[in-house]
Design a protein that fits this description.
The chain contains six helices and seven strands; from the N terminus they run ααββββαααββαβ. The chain has 237 residues and is an alpha+beta fold. It has two domains: 2-118 and 189-236, no CATH class; 120-185, no CATH class.
C-alpha cells in the first residue's frame, strides 16, 4: 500500500505524456462544506462527513485525526472553502511512521514522522473507576438510554442498568475526556521530516485528472479491504 501511494503521487513524473494538456474538470460528487462551524467543532478534520458516519467513528476521527494532523502541523482543510484546491493524502500504518502527502498547485509536500507513535497513551493515569468506564465506553460508545436499535436486547439491558449507576456515561464528551487524560508527553519531542517536490502545471493537472477519472468523488466514505494486510491501518484522501 505504501509503495502504491508513492508510485501514484510521485512515480507519475517519470512518464512522458503526449496527450493534450489536461484541463481540470471536477465531476459531481463529494461532500459539501459546512456553512457555519462552531468553535467546539473545529477539531473535526473530516467535518463534511461527521453526520454521515456512526457516532463512534465520528468521535474517533475528530479525536485521533486531530491529534495526528496537529502533530504534523497540518491545518483543518474541511471546515471552510480554500483559496486554492488542496489534496491531502495520509497513510497511517500500524508499525511505522505515518506519511502526510499534500498536493497543491506547484508542489507536493511529503511529511514523514520520526517514529511510529506521535503520542503516548498511559491507562494508569486513570482511576480504577475511570478505567471501568473507559472499558465500557470503548466497546459501546455512544451509550443511548433505552436504545431500541443497534444493540442486542441483552446488551442494551446491561447498558441501561449500568447508566443508572453511572449516568455520566451518557455524556458524549466524557469518553473523549478520558482519552485525553491517558495521553502523556513524549520523553523526546515528536518530529517529522519534510520534502518538497516542485511540479509543473501540467503534472499537477494530470494528477488531479487521475483522481477525478478514478471515480474518487463517487466513492463511499469507507472502503473496506476484503483481505487486509497484517501491517495495514488507514489511508485517507
Amino acid at each position: 500500500m505504501k509503495a502504491f501511494s508513492i508510485i501514484f503521487l510521485i512515480g507519475i513524473f517519470g512518464c512522458n505524456y503526449d496527450e493534450k494538456y489536461p484541463t481540470i474538470i471536477y465531476p459531481e460528487g463529494g461532500y459539501d462544506l459546512p456553512k457555519h462551524v462552531e468553535d467546539k467543532d473545529t477539531s473535526f478534520f473530516c467535518y463534511p462527513i461527521k453526520s454521515l458516519e456512526s457516532s463512534r467513528n465520528s468521535m474517533n476521527d475528530a479525536f485521533w485525526g486531530h491529534k495526528l494532523l496537529s502533530a504534523y502541523n497540518e491545518p483543518n482543510i474541511s471546515i471552510r472553502p480554500l483559496k486554492k484546491p488542496i489534496f491531502r493524502f495520509s497513510y497511517e500504518p500500524s508499525t511505522s511512521p505515518a506519511y502526510i502527502i499534500t498536493l497543491t498547485e506547484g508542489s507536493i509536500i511529503i511529511k514523514k514522522g520520526s517514529r511510529t507513535n506521535h503520542l503516548n497513551v498511559d491507562r494508569t493515569k486513570l482511576t480504577e473507576l475511570e478505567n471501568l468506564h473507559y472499558n465500557i465506553l470503548k466497546n459501546n460508545y455512544p451509550i443511548i438510554k433505552n436504545n431500541k436499535e443497534g444493540k442486542k436486547k441483552y446488551r442494551q439491558h446491561y447498558l441501561d442498568s449500568v447508566i443508572k449507576v453511572y449516568p455520566q456515561l451518557l455524556d458524549p464528551a466524557y469518553f473523549p475526556s478520558l482519552l485525553n487524560k491517558t495521553i502523556i508527553p513524549n520523553e523526546t519531542p515528536f518530529t517529522y521530516t519534510t520534502r518538497k517536490i516542485s511540479i509543473s502545471r501540467f503534472d499537477y493537472n494530470k494528477l488531479i485528472d487521475l483522481i477525478n477519472t478514478f471515480g474518487y468523488w463517487k466513492l463511499p466514505i469507507n472502503n473496506r479491504c476484503g483481505n487486509p494486510p497484517n501491517d495495514g491501518f488507514r489511508v485517507t484522501l
